[in-house]
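We include the entry.

. . .
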Amino acid sequence: MKKTIETILYSTAGVAAMAAILIGLNVITGVLKTRVDLTKEKAYTLSPGTRAILNKLDTPVKVRFYCTQSENSTPETVFLKGYAKRVEDLLAEYKQAAKGKLIVEKYDAQPDSDAEDSARLDGVEGQQLSNGDKFYLGLAVSQVDEKQAIPFLAPNEERLLEYKLSRAITRVQANEKAVVGIMSPLPVFGAPSNPMMARMGQQGSEPWALVTELKNDFTVKQIGMDVDKIEDGSKC
């Protein structure tokens, strides 16, 4: 009987001790405002490039995060809300790394609400669910008069989320685009339509996706293969 009581006491004491440790860890991490990334692929750890962008912020950047808090729980809304929570966690990482230079505001974009009007003005688009409801899950990044929107945060593009968010922050603070020169023997800039070839049904080619993507963030110039010196204002 005595042994049984001791076993129960020790077991209770062990549970209490474990609870105390967990509570202590929560208090410590809450005070330090840090979060341990235990995911195998470090999905929630900011890259050095992102940290460098945030460290260079001299004027506050505002992020307006729109997420519909639908009362109807369907597999779709549960899935989207789960992803929205991961987005919110990532924004918390950004805010902490920016050291006061990043302001995050969250809005519940319900139908016919001021938040929905704000989302539309910011370029955030509601997605139609299978039950006919609209679900907003996007964000707008702004600094002074510059603004960039990510209309919808697609869960299947989660791996690109940090890249898109960091690019948006970079775009709103860049006064003018940097110049990038491309030197290549390949037709990366596309080829104009030749009248003779057009008669034969062959049209010119479009610029490569690489060039199109670079033009979103840089002033892209074509550098001839016979050029010996790059003029000032061009970079390779």
